[in-house]
């Protein structure tokens, strides 16, 4: 599955747009991360490695769920991908990945043939 933040994929032509796909992941920060965040708040605020790693894993999970949804529609790519992140309560984070499920094939997209200048 190709996933891009752009509206088109270089060297590919979009032949069908199948619709919006979402991937939602919610994680609870562990007690260790909460304690480390509290200690870090007392310091310079740069050592939140554990929390950063958890957030990165949550983003990967949201992307995987989105890709599974697109595959279920028969898509081979997702374009226009964006993320939204929110805190839920005091100890949870929600990450939503969303984009448009499409079918692409080899070939230049119409906009790549427009002369620039």
Write the layout of secondary structure elements.
Blueprint: E1 2-3, E2 12-28, H1 31-42, H2 49-72, E3 77-88, E4 92-106
Parallel strand pairs: 1-3
Antiparallel strand pairs: 2-4, 3-4
What does this structure look like?
It is a single chain. This protein has 117 residues and is of the alpha+beta class. It has one domain: Hypothetical protein apc22750. Chain B (Translation Initiation Factor IF3, 2-Layer Sandwich), CATH 3.30.110. It has two helices and four strands. The protein has helices at 31-42, 49-72, and strands at 2-3, 12-28, 77-88, 92-106. A four-stranded mixed sheet has the order 1-3-4-2. A hairpin with a 3-residue loop joins β3 and β4 (92-106). The longest helix is centred in the middle third of the chain and has 24 residues, at 49-72. It is elongated.
């Amino acid at each position: 599955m190709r996933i891009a933040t752009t509206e088109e994929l270089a060297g590919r032509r979009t032949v069908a747009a199948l619709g919006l796909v979402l991937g939602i992941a919610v994680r609870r920060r562990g007690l260790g991360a909460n304690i480390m965040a509290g200690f870090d708040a007392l310091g310079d605020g740069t050592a939140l490695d554990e929390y950063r790693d958890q957030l990165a894993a949550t983003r990967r999970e949201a992307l995987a769920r989105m890709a599974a949804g697109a595959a279920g529609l028969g898509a081979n790519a997702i374009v226009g991908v964006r993320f939204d992140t929110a805190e839920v309560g005091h100890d949870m984070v929600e990450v939503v990945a969303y984009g448009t499920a499409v079918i692409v094939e080899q070939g230049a997209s119409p906009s790549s043939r427009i002369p620039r200048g």
